[in-house]
UniProtKB/TrEMBL annotation:
Its EC number is 3.4.11.2. It is an enzyme of class 3 (hydrolase). Residues 67-190 form the Aminopeptidase N-like N-terminal domain. GO terms for biological process: proteolysis. It comes from the Bacteria. It comes from Paraburkholderia xenovorans (strain LB400). One of its GO terms (molecular function) is metallopeptidase activity. This is Aminopeptidase N.
Length: 898
């Protein structure tokens, strides 16, 4: 197996069209857990656009080859090997029938065909189809599929595959069958089947053109009471894509299936989306407001793939962002429209803030480390490692910039042209860019650099006001700063950066904007500057007073802005900016700056202090009833420890934790009565509502509770949290209260209240795996103390009967939560966290390489940490490198150590 050999690098520059094409595929499955027989009959022909090849080379992994036939006759020149099947001297056009056997019951990788909870599921993206049958398993080979499923009727009463159901019926020996046909050509990664004991919530809806569609959400019988929200989200998604993009559902039936063993969030298989249960199942007792919002977003995301990904797919995996960046952008816009419609900018901004926070914390970090890569990568060893923050989240920002440049209407025109040109094709990121450019009569050659350059651009800003001439000039300079070597290699020249700006007067209002050369000021008080050179000056005229600039409004490009605001100016922006995103941003800048100063002091043992003016700026937000609760919660939440550590010259998680806790305590003590007021005023008595307003109240109230728990005397907070825990009619309030109880008692090594609530929580939800995941995660992310380090808790929980390393959600809830979401404890000076990490990466590597590789990434930024930690991290990485089996984990640790 090549798994132990030096990994092969796949390069974008080496793309060549396939030597053969496959037009139709007829699959027959005899489903048996340990031994499933697959018969695959394909119409194959030579590709007129490719060089003539001597052999047909099909991919195949973990398959037992049985037989091959060409045009109905046994074919002897078929040679099976570990990675596929080689067929010599094949005709130019022929029918190929292959029979092979696989073992779904033994498949712990959750790629290909596998068994979960006694039912069969598939996961084929990116390269899982080759674990089901021999095939040209690459996205530029598109075929129509017919699928026949045969299985025991008692064990597998439901048999599903892509497209439309043609017929079903009984067979001898208690077996039955179903035959499905997908009328749309698709690449193999969109194939899916599901078989087992499942039930569905069903709905019939009419699409825009009046056709009736059958919608189903399939789950295990005991979960049927948790499907309503996913169904509503699907219906909203269908309506939204019709209204915003004129895109209709193209099949008569659309199915969502939930499975509890799943490597990622969900998968857009044509007409048969398969979801992690975490992104389907919800009711108020088991799911938080965040879960509800995530379900809406992921259901939307997978549904939107039907056009952006399935009808128009990727030529090769280097183009992954073509479908993922675009579809993330679409799901972000969908969620924003659901929260605030097209015009409620403040409500839309809360979604924008959440998305940017993820981008900055996760993608910026990725771009600064050894896995840095452009949105369209140039090479990879294991494609599963490139389902990244860069491809998804930065990719979405790149798509958003087209909309920022051309407006919603211009963006829509570009999308329309993209579908007119490419429906039914496998295309590239360049094809998308050309459609946007041509539809808007623009040359977007320079914009290509967003796809080819890695690293986070920095824009530094200088401003100058000339009172006599009433001119205000803004000089922008772009560059990359000190980037990781992987990123630096790709950086060629300046980017086209849409830089949105507003100018704010002394009264806090926006000033009219008139650029030099314009006859008069425009109506809009935000202007998108097209910043294309390394350095460029934009001059505003008729500026009657010296303004305060509001820079990069709504985060109009994925860059870091450097500008020397004073603390007073930031407080002013936080109080007045008309751009809600930048109001939040001003608060974050203010807090980040203070926190980094404090972390520097904490690192060297200097006593900490916080200026009253900072407390005052936060107090104003806390008590400003004109702001929505959701916004206030976001503005009052300090930047995360991970983000702050990343900003330090040398990451020091302990110092960051000390600084952040100091500020939280200071804000808690200084504003105690305000927090109490807010806590009381934002209760949501009565039946649970999942609306954005209600969830905003809960978020602010629970934030207040968490600050109250920081008081020197947390007794009152503990009393409130206990009462909230007992009275809660929803998971948001219950889990927030439990978290506060755990953290309030951390310094004392735990409390009776906390233990009682933990035990109650477990008993109450013993039969709800997704809630037990929360139980593990809350403990793994809790605060620790010298008396009781969290690693001890985590090690004990690893032996809990409910822990199961094979289930990715469970592994993530305990191990990933500790290694990636509890930096102060994970980075303990004694290296205990790193030793634990190495053991778990190695253990997971033997079970599920995709999941192991994700965990492996939590040490990739090791070079950026303080020397004391660096050594421990390197030792752990070297230990893993010496024992790793999979290509997935090997790529990560080798890049980290390089
Ligand atoms: N295409 C999926 C999405 O973003 C994600 C995906 C890729 C995936 N590979 C996977 C999901 C493997 C599960 C397992 O919507
Ligand atoms: Zn996707």
């Amino acid at each position: 197996m090549a798994d132990t050999a030096t990994p092969n690098v796949i390069r974008r520059a080496d793309y060549a069209p396939p030597a053969f094409l496959i037009d139709t595929v007829a699959l027959e499955f005899d489903l048996v857990p340990e031994r499933t027989v697959v018969r695959n009959t394909m119409r194959v022909r030579r590709n007129p656009e490719a060089a003539r090849a001597a052999h047909l080379e099909l991919m195949g992994e973990q398959l037992e080859f049985v037989s091959a036939a060409i045009d109905g006759k046994p074919f002897a020149n078929a040679h099976a090997h570990d990675h596929g099947l080689l067929l010599d001297n094949v005709p130019d056009q022929f029918e190929l029938t292959l029979t092979s056997i696989c073992n779904p019951a033994a498949n712990t990788t959750l790629s290909g065909l596998y068994v979960s909870g006694g039912n069969f599921f598939t996961q084929c993206e990116a390269e899982g189809f080759r674990r089901i049958t021999y095939f040209l398993d690459r996205p530029d080979v598109m075929a129509t599929f017919t699928v026949t499923l045969r299985a025991s009727k008692a064990d597998y009463p439901v048999l599903l595959s892509n497209g439309n159901l043609l017929e079903e019926g009984d067979l001898p020996d208690g077996r039955h069958f179903a035959r499905w046909e997908d009328p749309f050509r698709k690449p193999s990664y969109l194939f899916a089947l599901v078989a087992g004991k499942l039930v569905a919530l069903e709905e019939r809806v009419k699409s825009g053109s009046g056709k009736e569609k059958l919608l189903q959400v399939w789950v295990e019988p005991h979960d049927l009471d948790k499907t309503r929200h996913a169904m509503d989200s699907l219906i909203h998604s269908i309506r939204w894509d019709e209204e915003r993009f004129g895109l209709e559902l193209d099949l008569d039936r659309f199915m969502i299936v939930a499975v509890s063993d799943f490597n990622m969030g969900a998968m857009e298989n044509k007409g048969l989306n398969i979801f992690n249960t975490k992104y389907v199942l919800a009711n108020p007792e088991t799911a938080t407001d965040t879960d509800f919002a995530n379900i809406e977003a992921v259901v939307g995301h997978e549904y939107f793939h039907n056009w952006t990904g399935n009808r128009v797919t990727c030529r090769d995996w280097f183009q992954l962002s073509l479908k993922e960046g675009l579809t993330v952008f679409r799901d972000q816009e969908f969620s924003a429209d659901m929260a605030g419609g097209a015009t409620d900018e403040a409500a839309r901004a809360t979604k924008r803030i959440e998305d940017v926070r993820v981008l900055r914390q996760m993608q910026f970090a990725e771009d600064a480390g050894p896995m840095a890569h452009p949105v369209r990568p140039e090479s990879y060893v294991e494609i599963n490692n490139f389902y990244t923050m860069t491809v998804y989240e930065k990719g979405s920002e790149v798509v958003r910039m087209y909309q920022t440049l051309f407006g919603r209407d211009g963006f829509r025109k570009g999308m329309d042209l993209y579908f007119r040109r490419h429906d039914g094709q496998a295309v590239t990121c360049d094809d998308f860019r050309h459609a946007l450019a041509d539809a808007n009569g623009r040359d977007l050659a320079q914009f290509e650099r967003w796809y080819s350059q890695a690293g986070t651009p920095r824009v530094s800003v200088r401003t100058q006001y000339d009172a006599a001439q009433q001119r205000y000039s803004v000089t922008l300079t772009q560059g990359y700063g000190e980037a990781a070597p992987a990123a630096r290699e790709t950086q060629k020249g300046p980017l086209l950066i849409p830089f949105a700006i507003g100018l704010i007067g002394k009264d806090g209002r926006d000033l009219p904007l008139q650029l030099e050369g314009e006859a008069q000021a425009g109506k809009a008080t935000t202007r998108v500057l097209e910043f294309t050179q390394t350095e460029q000056t934009f001059t505003f005229v008729n500026v009657a007073q010296e303004p305060l600039p509001s820079l990069l409004r709504n985060f109009s490009a994925p860059v870091i802005v450097e500008y020397d605001y004073s603390a007073q100016q930031l407080a002013f922006l936080l109080a007045h900016d008309s751009d809600p995103f930048n109001r939040w941003e001003a608060g974050q800048r203010l807090a980040t700056r203070e926190l980094l100063t404090l972390a520097g002091r904490a690192a060297t043992g200097v006593p900490l202090q916080l200026d009253d003016s900072v407390v005052a700026a936060f107090a104003r937000v806390l008590t400003d009833e004109t702001l929505s609760p959701a916004f206030r919660e976001l503005a009052l939440m300090l930047p995360s420890e991970a983000y702050l550590a990343e900003q330090m010259a040398e990451s020091n998680p302990a110092a960051v934790h000390a600084a952040r806790q100091f500020v939280r305590k200071r804000l808690a003590n200084a504003l105690r009565s305000d927090w109490l007021n807010v806590y009381e005023q934002h209760r949501t008595p009565g039946a649970y509502e999942a609306t954005p307003e209600a969830s905003g109240h809960r978020a602010l109230k629970n934030l207040a509770l968490s600050y109250l728990a920081e008081l020197d005397d947390p007794a009152e907070a503990v009393r409130l949290a206990s009462a909230q825990y007992d009275a809660a009619n929803n998971m948001t309030d219950r889990s927030a209260a439990l978290s506060v109880l755990l953290n309030a008692s951390a310094a004392n090594g735990g409390s009776a209240e906390a233990q009682q609530a933990l035990d109650d929580f477990y008993r109450r939800f013993e039969k709800e795996p997704l809630v037990i995941d929360k139980w593990f995660a809350l403990q793994a992310t809790q605060r620790g103390s010298a008396q009781r380090p969290v690693i001890d808790v985590v090690r004990r929980l690893m032996t809990h009967p409910a822990f199961n390393l094979k289930n990715p959600n469970r592994a993530r809830s305990l191990i990933f939560s500790f290694c990636a979401a509890n930096p102060a404890q994970f980075h303990a000076e004694d290296g205990s966290g790193y030793a634990f990490w190495a053991d778990q990466v190695i253990a997971l590597d033997a079970i599920n390489p995709q999941v192991a590789a994700r965990l492996a990434r939590s040490l990739e930024l090791w070079r950026r940490f303080t020397p004391a930690l660096r050594d421990g991290m390197r030792a752990a990485l070297e230990k893993v490198a010496a024992q790793v089996k999979s290509r997935d984990v090997r790529e990560i640790v080798e890049k980290a150590l390089a």
